[in-house]
Amino acid sequence: MGHDEVIRQAVDAARRTNHADVAAAWVGSLSKRDLPARSAWGSYVVLKNLPAHAFSPSAHYSATQCGVCGLTEDAELDDRVATYPYQVRHTGIAYAAADLITFPDRARTDPSHDDIECLHAILAALRALPDSAQLTELQKSLIRLFPSNKFQRMILLETFGYAGILRVPDHQAHWREFVTNDDANKRQPPEFFKREWEYPVRFWTGAGGVDDQAVAEHFGGW
Ligand SMILES: [Zn+2]
């Protein structure tokens, strides 16, 4: 297939995806831990502003990798998506593209009363964090609010970073503007333990808080 064809399919898949559908599947996944249904919203957020582009060797990392999207020149769609359980990797463009392409054929349910309660509890917990809060506190604030392990809570919070819901001053969210692979990987906080988190949420502190406008854009219906 190759880089250029994966990118063409990724751009096309994002264009055909309905934001309200993937956001509804995400909310509808919360109380039942429906991870395949939960994945697509994050993929859509990351791919929404992906520019159509030809392979462009990274200027900062291996030249076998594209500096824009991180794919190699001989990239293929990530078929882990078809064989759940798979590891969610929204910023892997080959993963995100396959995720959106297969989304219409995956089972999902409309948000239930319980799902919407989970969403409200998550947002309330995030809004209640003090200015001094760091990433560990951020992750722990969601314990017991919806069925999840630490890894699943981190992915949810990383998705909130891409979506601009967790506000990170001076580090743009994918939802507003595509972040190139080189740019995202170059931006690392000085604290080593924060680097296990994806960009931009790895820079989040309680002072950034929650962006109410972004919450309304994604979840206004609930
Ligand atoms: Zn590329």
Number of domains: 2
Largest sheet: none
Approximately how much helix is present in the residues?
A: 40-55%
Instruction: Provide a count of the helices.
Output: 9
- Give me the strand/helix succession: HHHHHHHHH
Strand-pairing-aware structural class: mainly alpha
User: Could you tell me the mean pLDDT?
Assistant: 95
In the predicted model, the low-confidence regions spanning at least 5 consecutive residues are: none
What percentage of amino acids are in beta strands? under 5%
Write out the distinct hetero groups bound to the structure: zinc ion
Q: Care to count the β-strands?
A: 0
Radius of gyration: 17 Å
Measured between the Cα atoms of the first and last residue, the distance is 40 Å
> What spatial form do the alpha-carbon principal axes imply?
globular
Can you lay out the helices and strands and say which pair or pack?
Layout: H1 3-16, H2 19-28, H3 35-47, H4 93-102, H5 113-127, H6 135-140, H7 150-162, H8 181-186, H9 212-219
Helix pairs in contact: 1-4, 2-3, 3-4
The structure holds zinc ion.
Labels describing this entry:
mainly alpha; binds zinc ion; 9 helices; 222 residues
Please give a structural write-up.
The chain has 222 residues and is mainly alpha-helical. The protein has two domains: 3-105, no CATH class; 113-219, no CATH class. Helix content is 43%, strand content 0%. It contains nine helices and no strands. The chain has helices at 3-16, 19-28, 35-47, 93-102, 113-127, 135-140, 150-162, 181-186, 212-219. It starts with a helix and ends with a helix. The structure holds zinc ion. Zinc ion (ZN) binds next to helix 1.
